[in-house]
Amino acid sequence: MKEKILLIQTAFLGDLILTTPLFRAVKKKFPDSSLTVIVNKGTESVLEANPWIDEILPLDKKSVKSSLLRFWRFASDLRKRNFTVCLSPHFSFRSSLLAWSSGAPIRIGYRTAGFSFLLTEKKSRPILGPHEVDKLLSLLYSEEESKAIDRRPELYWKEESVSGIRNVLKSWKLEKGGYILMTPSSVWETKRMPAEKFREVGIALSEKTGMPVVLAGGKGDLDLCEEVGKGFALNLAGKTSLPEMSYLTAGAALLVTNDSSPIHFASAFDIPTLAVFGATVPDFGYTPLATRSFISEIEGLYCRPCGIHGGKVCPEKHFRCMLEQDPNRIVREALRLISR
């Protein structure tokens, strides 16, 4: 029987990118299946041209959170599609409700998810230890089986989606492997290394490598990136779509970033990655999967981690996890990554 598989992943952008190995694994386990993926509206373009996905359904989470009627309309439409299997790697009770509403007789998710009693198969998910990709693969594969599965994320784009950024790079004479990409922002303030430290790192890397520095981020990161790169870097914050961000990352010689989604863009293209971790810890499982990477962190702090995602302010009021980051060491490690 041809399986009709539904996969619900309405988490943050980085989580969605880290789910791409699971998409591939699903279609390899069920080669004749169709795969429909529910994503948070606004993130769907990062999956464009993905060869393993047959259909993408964007869900406006803000809309369904504010209107029970809209939620049930969306859920009712799912039931009409006659799914046979539903995978729910998201934790919210709404995702479990959607899984149940899909009518799929097999509904697989995590034991710790909200309303997990609506699932037919519940998998354990340790908070610390395994990489997030391994946690996702555990929904379908045993630990032993997953060892043979490619864990690297993969991103694709349509040529028409990247013509704009291609022209921008061409106009600045930036060739593949010829620039350093820096993304100094994060949704959570305690995951951001201070702008002045990023600026110090960027200037030093530009001087020592002779490579231009490109800054990227969302529209809300424009001022931050301007503060970091004023006078020496190309600021593309707010000027790239998700496919364009993929293209921009794929051409970089190095990524310098915080614990945020650009790590996973870089992993998809095996771009050397230097990631600065503050409030969060690598043991959460969101570390780079690129062949060459380095994590800059202040070890031994009693207060780390202070939360799964970080927060808006340091709960201990000292913010040592970021204020004690050493730009000189970051530069040394970055140069080592490039020179290998």
UniProtKB/TrEMBL annotation:
One of its GO terms (biological process) is lipopolysaccharide core region biosynthetic process. It holds the Pfam family Glyco_transf_9. GO terms for cellular component: cytosol. Keywords: Glycosyltransferase, Transferase. It comes from the Bacteria. One of its GO terms (molecular function) is ADP-heptose-lipopolysaccharide heptosyltransferase activity. The keyword Glycosyltransferase applies. Coiled coil: none annotated. This is Glycosyltransferase family 9 protein.
